[in-house]
UniProtKB/TrEMBL annotation:
Pfam families to which the protein is assigned, alphabetical: PHO4 (PF01384)
Protein species of origin: Halomarina salina
Principal location: membrane
Name of the protein in its database record: Phosphate transporter
Gene Ontology cellular-component terms listed: membrane
Transmembrane segments: 6-29, 41-63, 75-94, 106-124, 130-153, 192-211, 231-252, 374-392
Function: Potential transporter for phosphate.
Stated family: Belongs to the inorganic phosphate transporter (PiT) (TC 2.A.20) family.
Keywords: Membrane, Phosphate transport, Transmembrane, Transmembrane helix, Transport
């Protein structure tokens, strides 16, 4: 019976990792594939390598947290581990049905918390620390990107000039057995640097995804002692790679096209800040959602750009007088499809001189869709925790 449960547990773990690879590859390398910098095969290879690297280094601490600090590791029997992974798999299924990227980390923690409450073994101190960071991280992501959007984004966009050419700055010369990267004859040095940045940040995003998500697939099995940490990292990383080479091909098309509607400079800022935040949280052992952080980065960056239409002194005067500040409502939380983009740093309008009509919320930000995403982010871990509690509390075989 134990062998059957282990096989089932490994199968569910592979299913979870497979779906993580499918969705995370699109997020990490969508800008690179959408801009023609990388092919899908190269994106899958890089995703596999860097997700494994992230899981084998920083991700080990997240496995420790989820496998033995929220509840004692002796609570993870094989049956309990399979049940927890089942709840994570169901969350992925629900998110796919609704077309919303559910927080796998939050759902997994919810299931483990349900187990801890049912058995009266939960560490409320550890849960308090995790939930605190769940609240702090999105706020931090919003404000960091808000400041960048208000004060730095137009200058970065003009300096990087990533959207200026229709041809990739680099291409692979396949005249020999080993493809060799070469610079396109018409590419400028700035475009080559931008291309390298797109690929490097994609690899960083893949590293972050591996660091935060490997634990979601195998932490219960590691906590149960069914497999050790190194084997768990290989299983999860391999499953992520399998997803990267298969179902990610479709998500790369979808996400790549979606992200190229978002200016490439903005996409890279969002990826860098969200990946850095999740890597930091993984380093201190906090399981957190890359999707939540990335979304709050997008909203924060757009909000910051929108507020360039008014100065702080004007906003303060409006607050004292009770009149609304002179900011176009349609531009709030928007990033636009490159509206108001300038070609030179010297042409960037000063704060308060930005044209409000150049940034339209309807080009990017859908309040109804965002509300649905936020509701499901809260709902899926809550349902996972309640369902896990009921199962572990009343089911006789646990």
């Amino acid at each position: 019976m134990a062998e059957v449960l282990l096989i089932v547990g490994l199968a569910v773990a592979v299913f979870v990792g497979f779906n993580i690879g499918g969705s995370s590859t699109g997020v990490a390398f969508g800008p690179a594939v959408g801009s023609g910098t990388l092919g899908k095969l190269a994106a899958g290879l890089l995703m596999t390598v860097f997700a494994l690297l992230g899981g084998a280094t920083v991700g080990v601490k997240v496995i420790d947290t989820m496998g033995g600090e929220i509840v004692p590791s002796d609570q993870f029997t094989l049956a309990a581990s399979v049940a927890v992974l089942f709840f994570v798999g169901m969350a992925l299924l629900v998110s796919n049905l609704f077309g919303v990227p559910a927080s796998t980390s939050m759902t997994a923690v919810g299931a483990i918390a349900g187990l801890g409450v049912a058995t009266n073994t939960i560490s409320w101190e550890t849960m308090g620390r995790i939930v605190t960071w769940w609240l702090v991280a999105p706020i931090l992501a919003f404000w960091v990107c808000g400041v960048i959007g208000r004060y730095l984004y137009p200058y970065l966009d003009a300096w990087m000039d990533l959207d200026s050419s229709d041809d990739p700055a680099l291409y692979f010369d396949r005249s020999s057995r080993i493809p060799v990267p070469r610079q396109h004859p018409n590419a400028r040095r700035r475009e080559v640097i931008g291309t390298v940045l797109v690929i490097a940040i994609g690899c960083y995003m893949a590293f972050s995804a591996g660091a935060s998500n490997v634990a979601n697939a195998v932490a219960p099995l590691v906590g149960a002692g069914a497999i050790d940490t190194s084997v768990g990292v290989v299983v999860a990383g391999g499953a992520i790679g399998l997803g990267a080479f298969t179902i990610a091909r479709r998500t790369l098309d979808t996400v790549g096209n979606d992200l190229t509607d978002l200016p490439l400079t903005a996409a890279l800022i969002v990826e860098t800040i969200s990946a850095s935040l999740i890597t930091f949280l993984s380093f201190i052992g906090i399981p957190a959602s890359l999707a939540v952080s990335a979304t709050m980065c997008i909203v924060g960056l757009g909000w910051g750009r929108a507020t360039r239409t008014t100065t702080l002194s004007d906003a303060a005067k409006a607050a004292r007088s009770g009149d609304p500040p002179p900011v176009d409502v349609d531009s709030v939380a928007a990033d636009g499809q490159g509206g108001g983009r300038v070609k030179s740093i010297t042409d960037v309008p000063s704060i308060g001189e930005e044209n409000p009509g150049s940034l339209k919320a309807s080009d990017l930000f859908d309040p109804a869709a965002t509300a649905r995403v936020v509701v499901l982010w809260v709902l899926t871990p809550s349902i996972s925790a309640v369902a896990a509690y009921l199962v572990f509390r009343f089911a006789p075989w646990f």
